[in-house]
Write a structure and sequence with these properties.
Length: 91
Amino acid sequence: MTDSGQLTFLTMGGATVTVPKRSKHHIQQRGYASPPGTGPAGETCGSCNHCARDREGRYRKCELNRAAWTRGPRTDILARSPACAKWEKPE
């Protein structure tokens, strides 16, 4: 038996809903200044001038979104994500 990577639920209304299965600790990163992939082709968030680290220096955050930073993973960004529209060349 192979794992399809999806879960299927039956709602109270009788509709069937299929969603992708995620790991127990999966949290979607939402710390981007604008949607990833809207910037220059071939660039990533990690190559942007606005890519920063949090206070402890462990997690990557977007400097443009500093006002929304929390101490949790929800405001993190992935360095390998495609660049957003606010991407700037590092100094």
